[in-house]
Amino acid sequence: MVQYNLVISYIGWSIQSHGLITVKNGWLEFADPVKQWKILVTHYGGLGGLAIIGIIFAAIIPCIGLFFCCCRCAGHCGARSQPFDKKYDHCRKVFLNILLIGVSTIILFGVVCAFVTNEYMQEGIENLPSRAKTNLKDVELYLTTTKKQISTLLTTNYNELEITLNNILQASGKIVTEELAAYSHAVSLTNLNEIVSGLDTIRQDLRMIDKLTRDLRTNASQLDIVVRGVKKNLLETLTGCKNHECQQVLHDYKINQMSIQVDFDKLPDVTLALRNITSLMEGNIVSEVSQGRETFLKIQRNIQHAVNETIPVVSASIENAGRSLASASKNITSLIDKINKEITKVYIPHLKIAQDNIEEYSIYRYYFGLGVSSVLLTIFTLLTFGLLCGICGKRPDGFGDDCCNKGTGGRFLMIAVWIIFLLTSILIVITTVLMIIGVMSHRAICEPLQNPKDNYIFELVDELVQVKQLLYPNNLEADINLSWIVTHCHANETLYNVLKLKYLMELDSLKNFVDRYAISSTIDQLREMINLSPGIVILTESATSKLNDLAQSGLSDIKFYQYAELLKDNITNVNLEHLGTELRRIAAVLPSSQANITDSLLKNAHDLDHYHKDLILPMTLLSEQLSTSALELQEHIKFNHGSMSEAIHNLVSEVMVAQQFLNKDGPKYVQILATKFGEAFLHQVNGFLEHLIKTARDTIGRCGPVSNAYNSTIVDGCNRILDPFNGFWVSVGWCLILFLPTVVLCVKLSALYQKSDPYPGPLVESIHDKNHKNHSRGSNVYSDNYDSPTIGVYHGPERTVNAIQRTSYHSSRYSDQTSKNWNASNDGPPKYQIAPGAPPLRPEYERPPPYYFPGNGSRN
């Protein structure tokens, strides 16, 4: 494609439009050629000059061909040549062959380019509708996605904001109260309330611990009694048993030391703490502390009640702003739907029609291009065969010649010359028409599409296609055109900037939403409704006294960790179950003579198993439960402090400070909180609006996909159709230009290929030159030379004599007046005449072949 681009660049300056085409009332209006002839010559002279030159050549070449044909018929222009080479003919043939090979190679490049560009052009034409449809689908998908993004931003997100703002308004009292409680440390009242509210759970835990402790002590007393009894029986029985194994059990299990090793009496006593807590609960400590919390919550309810009168006004303002954004969203999405509808209902059906027409008619254009390329290929093929035969073939001798001798090569070259004369004019006209169409299309279509900025033709398109009437029919003052859309779309700007959606929704005006829809003023009214009255009592003296009694209830003094320490060991120092098993084993091996000891061992083993199951195992479970409950209660009553007593004293102190703050500085601080609440509320609205402005202007609907589809369409139309189209006519024109030297070389080489003999020497050449001159004056030199003594006495090389004879014979073919000496007596071939006084010729010097004798009469 480089060659045609160079040509386009060379003649492209001639296609610029400078006021020659204007748009008037929606129609193209062309300038008067008579009045604007200077501009036409200046800017269209290059293309027009090339077209005129082509037409002149197309008219002249048939005349040249006719003159050349007449010249050949008259025996000139290479029609007849000498039978042998001249002195430098060999060098001429080598030089001309090289030139023709070079020219043919260059012609081959043009032929190949013609076939390739014709194929590429057909492929591009056939695929154009489908690729254009794909690009339109991409644009449609981009617009649909952008539409969803706009709807989500302006409608869905604002609806979510509206719900959030209403929730904030409904919880405004709680928000202010929580901030007030955190600042004034009144939040400690909540912690106190949690402590007293959990007293019932603490009391239940203490009751459970107390019960578990008493049960363990009771079981421990029973277990101690039975263990003592078993210990006494086993000592008597094992002592009376003389078996070694009895003594071993007595020693290993330390039966004499068997006892309960856990002192359950040392477990902490929770009775006092349980009694104190029960007394406090019966004294309504929970209700009195809860009453203080209820007093503080009353502040929240009063604030919320005051705010509720203003909430509907604020909500209405927010809702009005939302309706405005929803209306803008609807207008923008309607515009996008309009564009999508045009794509679906208009452009895609037109592409289907174009596809049908291309499938039906494009094949004729393809065959036309194939025919033109085939003519070039035919000429190149003839040149190739001519060169092959001319270079590799033998000389023509007229008798039994090979089909591919040098004469055949010359005839191939002359056929190529005649085809060139016959068809070049038609090819020049075709090439000129294609050149005009291709160059005009490239400059009028592709260049404006590729570079729409500051392009006069695209300015005409802007005037012809009124985009603002399509996009904003109700706003004719809209400043938007097609070049703006294309240029800014290539810059990957957002849809808002590309389509100038500011005519539907001015983003900067959103900054005034809070004032336009009175959101700010209603928030000011809301702020005024938030206030606090002094005289607040959140913790009475009675409640304080009871909380102090709770701190001194003794609960904090209980060492709950002792439960885990005391109960971590086994209840007895001997495993009763294992001991019972061992007693059964010994009883089984004792002899029958010790039946009493055996029965005693079995009875003790049975008692041990019973005590293990009925006392040890339940006590173990109770011990684990008691340890766990005690540790949990210990952590629970600390309330994030060292102890319950410390927690209550600190919390009571903080609550009293909070109560003093609320009565003294509370009203003023509530006003500060109300102001912060209003600012935070407006910040939510303004933050969303800023996010909306930034997102719509810089993020949503970036036009990169449309730019890609646009560029892809240009590639499909210009690079895959128009570029091969221009490459085709440049390739054909390339070959046509090279046909001029080709004709000259073919004619020269054809004359050289027809010569049958090599260079014979300077003597024969001089004789032939003399004969040629005489022949041109009408004399019969060859007849005289047959009787010439010079010929008769010549004793040169045999090949030279033969060349002379063939030359004489060859010349005689073109002379009707040459006299022959026939041997009429024997009707044989003619003999040489011996000059007077010359010795007779030997028989082998008679005239060499051919011996064919046609008989008396003239020879043609």
Automatic annotation (TrEMBL):
Q: Where in the cell is it found?
A: Membrane
- Pfam families the UniProt entry points to: Prominin
Regarding the membrane, this protein is recorded as: Multi-pass membrane protein
Renumbered to this chain, the Pro residues biased-composition regions fall at 837-852
Task: Give the top-rank taxon of the lineage listed in the UniProt record for this protein.
Answer: Eukaryota
TM ranges? 50-74, 94-117, 366-391, 412-440, 728-747
Task: Spell out the residue ranges making up region: Disordered.
Answer: 808-860
InterPro entries xrefs:
Prominin
User: Which UniProt keyword terms apply here?
Assistant: Glycoprotein, Membrane, Transmembrane, Transmembrane helix
Chain intervals with Polar residues compositional bias: 808-826
Show the GO cellular component annotation of the record. membrane
Q: What protein family does this chain belong to? A: Belongs to the prominin family.
In its UniProt entry, what is this protein called?
Answer: Prominin-like protein
Look up and give the organism this protein is from: Cotesia typhae
